[in-house]
Amino acid sequence: MDPSVYLGRIVGTLPLFVVWAVGLRLCWTKRQRWPASSWVLMAIVLALATKTLIPLLSVWIFQTFLTGLSAVGVRAALDSLLTSVAEAVVWGLLLWAIFGQAPRSVRRNR
């Protein structure tokens, strides 16, 4: 991948990175009181890795293993597959954090 294209993807995602950085900070500081924040923390880290590493990984896979294929559709399908699997895990972690466990304060009152 051309470094300028990769840099353009990263720069275009900066607002999202800022939100994730705030979320990481909040999850880290609230992890003792709200245990589900560790699931959110893992989701944010995975989402960050998805946005930064999947473009590089898909290019590497395409150049290493799929050298005979030059179709744009195959590259788009590979990018979509890698991204959607990672994002499905992110959403699963977030849903587990929201609905999987009650906060400690609620559990104590039962």
Q: Determine the strand fraction and express it as a percent band.
A: under 5%
**Main pleated-sheet profile:** none
Beta-strand segment tally = 0
Structural class: mainly alpha
Q: How much helical structure, as a percent, in the residues? A: over 70%
Identify low-pLDDT runs. none
Number of helices: 5
Please indicate the count of domains.
1
Q: What does this protein look like?
A:
With 110 residues, the chain is mostly helical. The protein has one domain (3-109). The chain is built from five helices and no strands. It starts with a helix and ends with a helix. The model has no long low-confidence stretch (mean pLDDT 78).
Give structural attributes:
5 helices, elongated, 82% helix, 110 residues
What topology emerges from the helices and strands here?
Blueprint: H1 3-12, H2 14-30, H3 37-65, H4 72-99, H5 104-109
Helix pairs in contact: 2-3, 3-4
Concise overview:
With 110 residues, the protein is mostly helical.
